[in-house]
């Protein structure tokens, strides 16, 4: 690609990065948080929140639900698994607000702090329109991947070149190229699944009315499967043993991991039970993998699965687990893939930041318009988000020690991010508080990881030690970046002085 076409691709890549780069960084950083959302909820509860011991039998959860005002006639029970540490009782699958200790049935305080960045990634706090906007950013990411791949050569030495002693601009260029090459397949995965996540839902809603005029809900019934027809039987004197039902389900479906149990018309003629979960080797979710049983004698009524439903429908169903790094359907390789997925999300955020820096440098050297505004937005919005998330985690670790009330955690996040934006807006371009924000982030991440890890060791509960390790490494990396920025700044000033 030479001449005008290459120049056009360069303008597309640079322009899209300049316009959408900050939003992409916010989405990628919050996306990395979202991959560990359930583990972070456990982290924020603290190592002493849950009592040791086995999970209560399912029959007892019906009694617990009644005490909390939830009718067993339509009850959804989310079971603890490799990611979710608690039991959730819900009036429906979409209304789960009650979290309980699996061993005692004790109600747990809500963990709203862990949901802030998760909701930021899902919808920018804007509901369905925000979800569509984020999906469009997935399209932008795909466009930038194509343009970046077209611009950079295929020389093998570029796969390992990282010049650390040639100044910040050269380091950022090499880092941008290096991450773009090594993380290319994962970037494609993020872009494709991110775009389909919202746009696919929008297309389903839009086409449902066309396919089923006057009854668009029929489209969702065909997508999810119709409920079974249950013929009422004579009343039995003995209630169905739900725990035995789960045992029988596991025996009948060896590769199936149950995640939830839903009661339908419980206690009435025609009652039935639905067991939902994940099928080994099948990229799907509990929404589509379901087994139905009679509510009186536990006899199977049928199954619903993504398997055998056509390539395009299976691909659409696979979008969510692939996007959020839910690899529980791969029990052996899943943990490793999840760790790599998380690392690539963080690398993608660094890729965007390095690209933004290169764009700002070109604008600054050419005295281009708008670079000062974007500089303030990047430092306050991007650096501020990094610092605010670190402050949130540090405050969460202090709350676990009883030094802060949990109710102040959201305020710590929003206050830190707002203060960062204001500080960046008020400071001149030459004195932007990037090193200050990185220092705050580094110290807060280190403190959060060390405090939580110490508490985990005291209570002999190291379930979420990988998060503590990531926080310690992230804090050390942020402080290393501060040191490198300081060194590069001194080198630049010395070069300017020698030039004069």
Properties at a glance:
single chain, 500 residues, alpha+beta, seven-stranded antiparallel sheet, 60% helix
Question: What would you say this structure looks like, in words?
Answer:
The protein is α+β, with helices and mostly antiparallel strands. It has helices at 3-35, 37-45, 58-67, 115-123, 127-151, 168-182, 184-211, 217-224, 242-252, 311-323, 334-365, 371-400, 409-426, 434-458, 465-499; strands at residues 74-78, 87-92, 95-100, 256-264, 272-279, 290-294, 300-304. α6 runs antiparallel to α11. The mean pLDDT is 88. Strands 3-2-1-4-5-6-7 form a 7-stranded antiparallel β-sheet, covered by helices on one side. Helices cover 60% and strands 9% of the residues. It folds into 3 domains: 1-49 and 111-221, no CATH class; 52-107 and 225-330, no CATH class; 369-500, no CATH class. The protein is globular, with a radius of gyration of 26 Å.
Find the count of extended strands (DSSP E, 2+ residues): 7
Strand percent estimate: 5-15%
Specify the structural class.
Answer: alpha+beta
**What is the average per-residue confidence, as pLDDT, rounded to a whole number?**
88
Number of helices: 15
Tell me the domain tally: 3
The largest sheet has its strands arranged as 3-2-1-4-5-6-7
**Helical proportion?**
55-70%
- Contiguous low-pLDDT stretches (5 residues minimum) are none
- The helix/strand order is HHHEEEHHHHHHEEEEHHHHHH
State the end-to-end distance.
41 Å
> What is Rg?
26 Å
How would the global form be characterised?
globular
């Amino acid at each position: 690609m030479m001449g005008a076409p290459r120049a056009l691709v360069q303008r597309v890549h640079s322009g899209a990065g300049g316009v959408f780069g900050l939003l992409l960084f916010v989405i990628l950083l919050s996306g990395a948080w979202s991959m560990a959302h359930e583990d972070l909820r456990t982290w924020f509860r603290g190592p002493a929140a849950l009592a040791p011991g086995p999970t209560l039998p399912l029959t007892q959860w019906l009694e617990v639900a009644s005490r909390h005002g939830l009718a067993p006639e339509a009850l959804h029970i989310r079971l603890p698994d490799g990611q979710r540490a608690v039991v959730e009782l819900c009036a429906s699958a979409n209304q789960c607000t009650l979290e309980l200790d699996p061993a005692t049935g004790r109600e747990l305080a809500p963990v709203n702090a862990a949901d802030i960045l998760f909701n930021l990634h899902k919808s920018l706090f804007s509901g369905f329109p925000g979800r569509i906007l984020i999906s469009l950013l997935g399209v932008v990411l795909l466009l930038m991947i194509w343009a970046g791949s077209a611009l950079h050569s295929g020389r093998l030495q570029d796969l390992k070149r990282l010049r650390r002693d040639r100044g910040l601009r050269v380091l950022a260029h090499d880092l941008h190229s290096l991450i773009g090459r090594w993380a290319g397949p994962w970037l494609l995965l993020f872009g494709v699944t991110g775009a389909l996540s919202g746009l696919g839902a929008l297309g389903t809603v839009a086409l449902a009315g066309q396919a089923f005029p006057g009854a668009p809900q029929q489209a969702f019934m065909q997508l999810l499967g119709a409920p079974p027809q249950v013929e009422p039987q004579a009343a039995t004197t003995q209630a169905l043993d739900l725990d035995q039902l789960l045992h029988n389900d596991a025996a009948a479906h060896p590769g199936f991991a149950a995640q939830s149990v839903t009661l339908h018309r419980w206690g009435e003629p025609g009652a039935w039970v639905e067991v939902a979960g994940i099928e080994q080797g099948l990229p799907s979710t509990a929404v589509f993998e379901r087994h139905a049983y009679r509510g009186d004698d536990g006899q199977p009524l049928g199954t619903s699965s993504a398997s055998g439903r056509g390539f395009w429908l299976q691909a659409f169903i696979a979008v969510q687990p692939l996007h959020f790094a839910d690899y529980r359907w791969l029990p052996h390789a899943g943990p490793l893939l999840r760790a790599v997925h998380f690392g690539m999300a963080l690398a993608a955020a660094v890729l965007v930041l390095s690209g933004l820096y290169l764009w700002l440098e070109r604008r600054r050297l050419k005295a281009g318009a708008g670079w000062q505004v974007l500089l303030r937005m990047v430092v306050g919005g991007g650096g501020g988000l990094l610092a605010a998330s670190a402050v949130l985690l540090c405050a969460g670790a202090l709350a676990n020690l009883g030094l802060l009330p949990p109710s102040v955690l959201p305020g710590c996040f929003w206050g830190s991010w707002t203060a960062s934006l204001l500080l960046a807006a008020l400071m001149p371009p030459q004195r932007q508080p990037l090193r200050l924000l990185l220092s705050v982030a580094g110290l807060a991440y280190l403190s959060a990881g060390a405090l939580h890890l110490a508490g985990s060791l005291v209570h002999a509960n190291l379930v979420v030690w990988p998060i503590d390790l990531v926080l310690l490494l992230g804090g050390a990396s942020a402080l290393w970046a501060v040191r490198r920025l300081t060194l590069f700044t001194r080198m630049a000033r010395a070069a300017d002085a020698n030039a004069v």
